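Re: the multi-chain job from yesterday

Posting the exact lines I submitted so nobody has to dig through the queue logs.
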Amino acid sequence: MIGRDHRIARTARSTGGLSVLVLVLVASLPLWFIQTYFVLSVATLTLIFMAASLGWNVISGFGGQISFGHSIFFGLGAYSSALLQAAYGGNAYVGLLFGVVLAVVVALLLGAVTLRLRGIYFSLATFALTLVFAILTGHYEQFTGGEVGLTLPLLGDDPGSFAFSDKLVFYYIALVLAALAFAGGWLVQRSRLGLQLRAVAVDQEAAQACGVLAFRVKLAGLAISAVPGALAGSVYVQYIGFIDPDSAFGAALATQIAVIAFVGGAGRLWGPVIGAVLLVPLQQLLNSQLSAYPAGFNLVVYALVVLVILWVEPRGLMSLRRRAPQVRLTAPPSAAAPQPTGAAATREGSAG
Amino acid sequence: MVTTLVQTLVSGILVGGLYGLFSSGLTLIFGITRVINFAHGDFVTLGMFGAVLLFTWFGLSPLLGIVPVAIGSLLLGAIVHRVIVRRTLSITGISAVDAQHGQLVLTLAVSILISNGLLMLFGPAPRAVQDVLTGVYDVFGVFIAQARLVSFLIALVVFLILYHALQRTLYGKAIRATVDDRDMAAMVGIDPDRVYAVSFSVGIMLTGVAGCVLATYYPVTPTTGGSFLIIAFVTVVMGGLGNVVGAFVAGLLVGVIQQLTAIYVAVDLQDVGLFLAFVLVLVFRPQGILAGRRAHA
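And the result, structure tokens for all chains:
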């Protein structure tokens, strides 16, 4: 209650103001928080997967068509960029653009086959297709490097070929990428397309009755949604310097992009941001200590965290805030404080 | 030439029976809850581990092990449904779509939990049941392994029992009514909550049984569930989502397609052949291959 009419608080409440505040904060992290290469790497990967998940949010969050195969676009971006550079000596930036175009074409083809049907077919087909891509890239090894994967040539410091000796540059590239994906999501959400997507998500028949061309809207949503995924894949492979079929198209990545958004809140603009900030560092931390624990331990913990969060709030962490007033409404009048503070209400909500 | 073809078809059908059995569990669960159970493949793995562990610890043959594995997976299914899947429906003010998406992600988390839990406990090495049903029949030059034949027959019998139960028992009729029209079924006094619980548990039980008999000839690792999940996805779409008979028939077809691709194209591309069939079904017959007739269950 204290700062409700305060200008700073009001600015922070609006999406634009809040996102600028967060952007400045994240951009300043290397100055005061990120001290080691490990933390820098975790932060960079968090931003990369955040971008992919923000892309996912357009078709699956706003549009309600749950994709379990956004790794298709991530992998296409990664492999286009890596193949062009490693096998054909091309420019990495051309590879990045080619990856985006390829991802959009595949998205349109996939959508043409599946988006006329009920949403569940889309979920099944995306999951099956990404695993098929993993098998195909593993099988045609003379073209893709096969199961062994592709290693990018070490170029030292060559900004013209997307190579930077200072890893901090990749952090800022990833930050720009995530910021663009967020801005893209915001624009879609505020646009006519975003409204139509949400209408289709809630009730497709009703939306169609109001004149929404559901198939076309979903197809456009899927094509837009593929772009951040492909860009994230390209940046990822340039940053890590290595890609193999499983880390590009595998089931783990396919589900992770979706789970990040679900944990934060699918269909909420900030959902993928919160989900990525929570889950990616968790995974990286557990992975780095892998030697101390038996294999599989890291994913057991990961799965338990996801289970608990979705058990408490199936709509994701963003919705916990929304539940606070409901708790007040359902509580007996005597138990409810006359004017509970925001913090207390939130705590109540997360406990329930 | 012809012998190779017949051999391929026979092994496809024999393994397809098991695909059909666990896929009919997935389609049964989908028909009722409208949720795709992402942990389905991992429940097959659990059934296989159950059979292997009963065999190595107590020397129990997988054919007898079916009984404890079936009971165990039935209980496990009931627990997963009661504690995890049903949870999302009890949130106040949640929309049906959000609840379903929540269930989807919860089953996904269960899948990661099972496969990595098994990896943690038993390590990545493949395990198998040895020296059980090792005979091979030679039928006019076509070799049929005893383990495959017996597994197929068990799968067929279990499926027929399921079919009979769905057609003739009161619970079966309640389940079919709920698949056809949930609101109407609830209106005539069918408790949807109980139907959910029963069909989820039975679906998982079918999966456990399929895994148990599959273990007689298929070595199990903690991560085998992923490929079973894809097989089950393709099978249930081919059979028509929610159609139990369709799923079993499609399972046979999927087994044959997989074997044909493995023999005539490349072994590691066998799942790509499945995916092509999947796309063709999506484009031409999204209602399922058997949907021409009035679908049962």
